[in-house]
Amino acid sequence: MALVRRLTQHYVEIEKNPPPLCYAKPEDPSKDMIHWTGWIEGPKDTPYTNGRFNLSLKFPSDFPFKPPEIKFLTQIYHPNISIKGEICLDILHSQWSPALTVRSLLISLCSLLSDPNPEHEINKDALELYRTDKKKYEERARQWTTMYAIQD
After folding, report:
1. pTM of the prediction?
2. Quick check: is 22 catalytic?
3. Catalytic site residue from 88, 92, 102, 110
């Protein structure tokens, strides 16, 4: 019951003070607070501009002591996001803190799109291109954004 109460607080925080360029909510707040869906708008002046990237969030039973499992459902070309949507972000793993909120996690994911971390890759192809030919990397990321994340 404490888990549901805690997740309800996170949901209320997002509703009262929505983070810029992103959002998340329980799939069905009346029945299930564990499974959430969300999205991130591609930040301006990045290869992800105008894209909407859908997310799934699943909270473990020992949240907030363990981080949620967050995945990109929309394909994205990024050094820190795998083809399967797995995210390499320290605060979702070794640097997790129970003080982090869902809102702050979403903002961190937005920031990751603006500023990839070349020290932590999960997509080797994207990282190699990012390090050796940033213009080509941005071109490919823009192509993927157009193919997968821009709704007509």
Report:
1. 0.94
2. no
3. 88
